[in-house]
Amino acid sequence: MREILVVHRENDAFAVLVRDHVIHVDQPYSAGGMDVGPTPLELFVASLAASAAHYARRYLSRHGLPATGLEITAGYTMSPTVPTRVSHVDLRVRPPARLSAVEVDGLVAAVDRCTVHNSIIDAPRIGVHLASEARAA
User: Fold this and answer.
1) Residue 102 — φ and ψ, nearest 5°?
2) Which of 30, 48, 110, 131 satisfies CB 3.0 to 4.6 Å to 59 for a cystine?
3) Is residue 125 within a helix (H) or strand (E), and if so which, with residue range?
C-alpha cells in the first residue's frame, strides 16, 4: 500500500508529504485559518481536474494534436444537505487547438476515464484506525 503522511503544523494548517513533495493545506481566513494553502476540499477537486488534464494531454499527444496550452477548469458545488460534500463538479476542457467532432468525442471519453474520476464513481472503501494514543508526560 502506498502512503501519504499528513503532519499538523499549527491551528488548521497541515503539511501533506507525498513522496519528496510537501503540499501545505489550511483553511481560508474566513473559516478561521491562515490561508497558507488550499483547503483539503479544494485539493480534492484539484486532484480530479489535474487527473483529467493528464488524460486529456495524453489523448492529444497520442493523436498528434497540440497539447501545449491545454486548460481544465473545475467548478464545484457543495450539497445543501448533510452530510457536507461536493455534490457537483463541472470540468471544462479547453484544448489549445480546434478539434474535429470525432476528436472532441475522443477527448471527452479520455477525460471521463481518468483515474480520479473512476475512484469517485466506484468509491474506495475507507478504513479509519487509531495507530496509538499519545503518551501522558
Assistant:
1) -65, -40
2) 110
3) none
pTM of the model: 0.90
Same-domain status, 13 and 26: yes
Residue identified by cell 495524453 is 58
Cβ of 102: how many Cβ atoms within 10 Å?
9
* Distance (Å, whole) CA 22 – CA 17: 5
User: What is the enclosing helix (H) or strand (E) of 94?
Assistant: strand 86-94
Helix axes 101-112, 40-62, angle to 10 degrees: 140
- Structural domain that includes position 21: 1-37
Residues 6+ apart with CB under 8 A from 104: none
In this predicted model, what pLDDT tens digit does every residue of 82-97 receive, in sequence order? 999 999 999 999 999 9
46 and 30 within one domain: no
